[in-house]
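User: Teach me something about this protein's shape.
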Amino acid sequence: MITCSNCGHSNQDHFNFCEKCGNNLKNVSSTENKVPEKQVSENQTSENNIPQERTTQNNASSSAPSYLPEGPKKKKKSVKKIILAVAAVFILYILMSNIILAFSPATRLLKGINDFGKFSKFTSEVSLTLDYKGSDKTLDLLDNIGVAGTISTDMEKLLVESSVKLLYNKKKVTELKAGINDKLVWIDPLDLHKDKFYYEFDNKTAVASSKEIDIYRNAFRKISLDFNEKEYLKIVKDVFGKDLKNSLGKVTITLDGNTIAELLDEFLEYAKEDKKLMKSVRTEGIKFIKNIMKHGEKGQLSTLYDRDSFEIALEFFEDKEGFEDSFSFVIESLQYQLNNILYYFDNLMPEINITLHYGLFNKLNKVTANFTVSAADDYTNEKLVLEYNIITKEGAKFTNFNTKKAKNLEKVMDDPAEIMDIGKTIATNLIESITDNKEFRKEIKEIEDRLGMDIEDLTDYLEYSMPFYGW
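Assistant: First, the predicted structure itself:
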């Protein structure tokens, strides 16, 4: 046995550290570690009085090479627990926010529409597929043809850019791009022509119009109408009924001309007697008109501003009794006009399925829509169905168009020979793009055989059919 020189505890011979206090026993001789028998006896007595739990812990730690405090380990475990607790609360909040809104699809729908209205930049991807049902084998070839387009929009800069692809069996045949902003319109034929083209607006007029639109847009943003939201939500629920479906992460709605007409009619019918809305419209209307007139007096508005019209409008809004008497009449007139427009529109508008997709905290991520348009011939039982699919997401990217590397269309239009040359080049390159696709080429060959013509003769037809002789 080795007796500890620090506390007098007896340790087994192979121990390097004291079992009780952790003192180093390695360099201590057996003679140096001897203590009076009385002290040993007392130590053994006190050891026997140690609770069983503590004795067990000491035995377990006796084989350890050194004495390590448990404080840091416990601290790390506490931090992990806190992190897990915060994560659990965060996930629970997300789930609860989705579940709560799931009980009110109308609320969630209006929130999504409001979120969409705040998109300053957004991109829409549009696809069109054709489906022919009939006996005409030539038209049956349309089933493999499709069109895909992308439209990018920046509402702040009044910038729109689009690209259109011609597809065959979902593979690109050819593509072109175009864009418009407050300064110019541009076209990039890509593989169809080596040159790019643009038309530049009158710079002074364009800059002035752009600034004036910004003034009106900022004034509209300051408008905040007050109305009974619960009543309008109730109208949404009643009109849409089962056509409004809610699930985790999305809301789906089915629209047609009749549903839109009914919804607008119900909204306007309730708005006629909505005193809260009437007061809000009058107050916000006065603020808007005065805001615009202030800019007009400073000379910041000219093209999109007529002082006399705004003065008449301000006089109308400031006359409280006259405005209240006219409020219902104005809405009734609007109701009548909309009903007439939607009556004819109902027969033309297809059924549209719209889905609003939500992410964290029920923030709108994207909107998807799909609808079909069909044209049928009852006598021949032929039918052509066009199916549209649209996906709109927040954010947009734009091409940096360089006018120095493009041709001005205003100058090109003055040269008929150059216009003809551009047309023939585009037609030739389009034919090459089609014939490069072996599958597409086979079907084009069938069309040529049926029509008794060669697709490559189209360039010659184009040259002789365009009436440039009178230029």
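Now, about its shape. Residues 71-102 form the longest helix (32 residues). The two ends are 122 Å apart (CA to CA). If you'd like, I can walk through any region in more detail.
User: That's plenty for now, thanks!
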